[in-house]
Amino acid sequence: MDLTESSPAQRTGLLNAIADELTAAADELVPQAMAETGLAEARLRGELKRTVVQLRLFADVCAEGEFLDVRIDEADPGFVLGPRPDLRRFNLPVGPVLVFAASNFPFAFSVAGGDTASALAAGCPVILKAHPGHPRLSALTAEKVRGALLRAGLPAETFEVVFDQEDGVRLLRDDRIAAAAFTGSFEIGRMLAGIAAGRERPIPFYGELGSVNPVVVTPAALAERADEVASGFVAGVSGSAGQLCTKPGFLFLPDGHGLARTLGSAADAVPGHPLLHEGIAAAYTERRAAVLAAPGVAVLAEGAVEAAPDGWCRATPTLVEVGLDDLLKQRSALLDEAFGPLSIVVRYDPDRPDLLMDAIGRLFPGALTATVHSAAGENNEWLRRLVALLRERVGRLLFNGWPTGVAVTPAMQHGGPYPATTAPATTSVGTAAIQRFLRPVTFQNCPPELLPPALRDDNPWRVPQRRSAAGASVNWGNPVS
Question: Which of 111, 155, 337, 365 shows a CA-CA span of 20 to 30 A to 276?
Answer without folding.
Answer: 365
